[in-house]
Amino acid sequence: MFTKMAATIASVVSAYDRPTELKAFDETKSGVQGLVDAGIRHVPRIFINPHETSPKTSTTLEIPVVDLGSTDKASTVEKIRAASEKLGFFQVVNHGIPVSVMNDVLQGVRRFHEQDVEVKKQFYTRDNTRTVVYNSNFDLYTSPSANWRDTFFSFMAPSPPPPEELPEVCRDIQIEYSNQVMKLGSLLFRLISEALGLNEDHLRDLDCDKGLVFIGHCYPACPQPDLTMGATRHTDDGFLTVVLQDEIGGLQILHQNQWIDVPPTPGALVINIGDLLQLISNDKLRSVEHRVVSNEKGPRVSVACFFSTSLAPSTKVYGPIKELLSDDHPPRYRETTVYDFVQYSFSKGLDGVPHLLHLKL
């Protein structure tokens, strides 16, 4: 009996040819949205993630909201310091980006993902040097399980692409929103510099606000959300991330070994510390693991803007800021260039292992 059962299990396992199924999915160039459009009722095996999806419980903890319009600068800096050290996440309101622009960019991302698949396929690629990179799962072939999301991204700074090379359905608003986020980033880096006890221009002088990557995510409605994730647990490999969520939500952060919901707040943007900022602050600021749960509602869209020169060639070396070091606080990381660190991050994918361990002294 047991021999027969073992043979049955072996035949089922052998019948699952993951590389072939990944390739077949990739070659459709229509992403997860293509599966949904085809009326799929069961999550394909390449997406099933038994380790992280059980359970998807979360606890309630209020994510700090920082009013950037406040005239009490000292209080603003202190709130950012406390949130960046303890949670690695905070929200900002009165940030200067009009609600109309925020709504329009979400609609632009939605239009991109909902446009005719033959038009969308023109942008489908795994060549990260392209002006616009659209695909499903940047780490499709390296991650333990695929995530239930499609993505497009462009490098918008320091060398923005020619407008005509951006998708027509979201071109103007993508440029407008990116310009607005660059202005916001300039302010945030000044405030974070002060929160670290440094001159307000310190992080900007290090070019932390020089690069910007615009990422438009789409998480289609999932028929079996308990089996897969919208995005598995990870940290961001840049300096700082500005996230705009739609009303569906699903973002969670890991705090004291518990998952905390980050519910959408009308008019607010979510800010989180990235790996490179944790590195140069010598662990004073925290790049915290976060994830996105899948949902029967959808499609959920979000815009994440990473402050990073990412895969652009770079020679500038980053390590713990000398002003933050002492005999009691020696450097905890080796130095790196942004390119080398992001290249390492891309090669690893979202495997659940913190990228910064690679540079730990």
Automatic annotation (TrEMBL):
Belongs to the iron/ascorbate-dependent oxidoreductase family. The keyword Cytoplasm does not apply. Pfam families: 2OG-FeII_Oxy, DIOX_N. Keywords: Iron, Metal-binding, Oxidoreductase, Vitamin C. One of its GO terms (molecular function) is metal ion binding. This is Fe2OG dioxygenase domain-containing protein. The keyword Phosphoprotein does not apply. Gene3D superfamilies: B-lactam Antibiotic, Isopenicillin N Synthase, Chain. Residues 210-310 form the Fe2OG dioxygenase domain.
